[in-house]
Amino acid sequence: MENNYLYGIIAVLVVMTAGLGWALWSLNQPPEFVEEPFVTIEEKIVEDEAVDGNEIDEQTIGAVINVHIEPTSNQRDTLDHWQTVQSIVELSDEYEMKLSLHFSPSVAEFVTSNAEALELVRDWEESGHEIAAHHHDPSHAEWDGYTNDASLIGTRGYEGTVDELMEIVTAITADGEILVGSGTKDAEEWPEGVIYGSAGGSPPSYEDLVGPPFQETMGETEVTFLTKAPFGVGMISASRNATYEHIAEALEDMRDDEYLGLTLTDKTFNEETLADLEQVYQLFVVEGIQTQTIENLLAP
After folding, report:
1. Alpha carbons 245 and 86: distance in angstroms, whole number
2. DSSP H helices in 172-293
3. What's the rounded Cα separation, in Å, for the pair 105 and 135?
4. Is-above-0.85 flag for pTM?
5. Band of residue 300 on the pLDDT scale cut at 50, 70, 90
6. Distances 38 to 46, 49, 247 between C-alpha atoms, Å
7. What mean pLDDT is predicted for residues 209-238?
8. What confidence tens digit (pLDDT) does each residue in 103-120 have?
9. How far apart are CA 71 and CA 78, in angstroms?
C-alpha cells in the first residue's frame, strides 16, 4: 500500500513537471505570424464605403485633376518639365488616381521625337490617364506660337494655326484623337472638334473648386466644361490656391450635380506641392474617391 501511495506521488510530480516544461517552452517561442491578405487601394475604397453594413455600389463624387504641361522655350526647359510630369504621374499611379494630362505643343513635339517618352505616354494612356490639348493663345503672357489670327502670320513667335497645334498633340495619342482641351478662353482659338474642357474663373481661385458642368459655344463647337481650381500654382497668389482644408470642406457640402476639379502646372510644381498632393490623395482614399478623366465623367 505504501508503494502505491509512493507511485501516485511520483506520477503527480511527473505530470506537473511535464506541464511546467511545456509552459516554459511556449513562453520561449516567437509569436505566431498570421499573414494578413494584401488590400489594394480599390479594396480599401470599397471597405470605407461600407456604412452600417450597407455598401455603396459606386462612388458618388466625381473628381478631376488636370495637369497643365506648359509651353517651353528650350530643350533644358522641356526636360525639366518632363521630369516634373513623370513625378506627378508616378504618385498618382501609386494611389490609383487618373489624371487629365494637358499637353502644350512644344512638349508634345519633344514626346514624338523621343521614342522612350512616346512609349511612356502611350503607357499612361493605356492605364487610364487622359491626353488633352493645352493652348496658350496670343493674349496669354506665354503664347505658344499657334493662332487662328491670320494677321499674326509671319510675326515673331508664330508657329502655325490651331489645327496644326492639334496635329502635333494628337500625334502622341494611340488613336490620334483628342476630345479634351484647356487654356484659351477665346472662342475663335478653341480647337475644332474638342468637345470637353476644363475652365475656371479669372483670376483663378479656390472658389472654383466645385461646380456643375456648364456649356459654352466655342467657335462652331458646343463644349461642355468642368470647373477647376488652382492647386500649388506658383504664378498666382498662394491665397488663391485651393488647399487640403478647402478640399476636405468641399467634399462635405457637394451636391449630386457637382464635380470637384483641381489644376496643377508643371511650371511651378515642386517637392512641397508633391507632398501636398499626396495628402489630398490620402483624403480621397479615405473618402472613397478615385479621380477620373474629364471624358469619362462627361461622355454619355
Report:
1. 26
2. 244-253, 271-287
3. 8
4. no
5. confident
6. 14, 18, 29
7. 94
8. 999 999 999 999 999 999
9. 8
**pLDDT at residue 56 tops 70:** no
C-alpha cell at 81: 518639365
Task: Quote the CA–CA distance of 35 and 32 in Å, as a whole number.
Answer: 10
Q: Are 259 and 227 in contact (CB under 8 A)?
A: yes
Dig out the grid coordinates for 170 from the structure. 494628337
**At 209, which amino acid appears?**
L
**In the 8-state DSSP scheme, what is residue 145?**
S
Domain boundaries, the chain: 2-43, 62-298
Q: Which residues of 110-126 are buried (b: 16+ CB within 10 A; e: fewer)?
A: bbeeeeebbebbeebbe
User: Does CATH number 3.20.20.370 belong to domain 62-298?
Assistant: yes
Under a CB-based contact definition with an 8 Å cutoff, are residues 209 and 250 in contact? yes
Strands 221-226 and 214-218: antiparallel
What's the gap between Cα 83 and its chain centre?
16
Q: Facing residues of 134 across strands? A: 182
User: Please, are residues 172 and 118 in contact by the beta-carbon 8 Å criterion?
Assistant: yes
The torsion of the CA quartet 278, 282, 288, 290, rounded to 10 degrees, works out to 10
pLDDT digits (tens, 9 = 90+) for 167-208: 999 999 999 999 999 999 999 999 999 999 999 988 899 999
CA 71 vs. chain centroid, Å, equals 21
What lies within 8 Å, CB to CB, of 20 at 6+ separation is none
Q: How far apart are CA 55 and CA 49, in angstroms?
A: 6
The beta strand positions in 94-144, using DSSP E, are 100-103, 130-134
